[in-house]
Write a structure and sequence with these properties.
alpha/beta
């Protein structure tokens, strides 16, 4: 996990994943691309981080299945209400987790995800592109008719 300093203007991405290897992979991918990354193993820990540093976080990239009473879909709902400017990207390798389960505006990408898809979406969500790159469709977007 990177140290975050107030003078560092790079966007902050909060990665929520209980599998250490997958969390490490996502964090490394994002750090190598110039983002600051904060890691959390559970949704509860992610909420604690957001309570302390929500003004710094631009994007939350979370697995749908996290240990504890709060999962990724509920985390996305809480973020949407409490920190509406924070963009949420959810991922899952479980075929039972469907984008239709998401009732808030967030993005869902199934596992295994491609690094290029994650980077394109996160860069756009964090405001680092001119909009010429398009990431995956946003679930709940009026353009998709959800």
């Amino acid at each position: 996990m990177s140290a975050v300093t107030p003078s560092d203007a790079r966007p902050v991405i909060l990665v929520v994943e209980d599998e250490p290897d997958e969390r490490f992979l996502a964090a490394e991918l994002l750090e190598e691309t110039g983002f600051r990354v904060i890691e959390a193993e559970t949704a509860e820990r992610a909420l604690a981080i957001l309570n302390d540093r929500g003004d710094e976080v631009s994007v939350v990239f979370s697995d749908v299945r996290t240990p504890g009473p709060i999962g990724g879909f509920e985390l996305a709902r809480i973020i949407g209400v409490t920190w509406p400017r924070v963009r949420v990207l959810l991922t899952s390798g479980d075929a039972g987790d469907q984008p239709s389960d998401l009732r808030v505006s967030a993005t869902f990408i199934p596992k295994p995800w491609r690094a290029a898809d994650i980077l394109a979406w996160v860069e756009e969500a964090a405001g680092r592109t001119d909009g010429s790159t398009s990431g995956p469709d946003v679930i709940g977007s009026p353009l998709r008719g959800n």
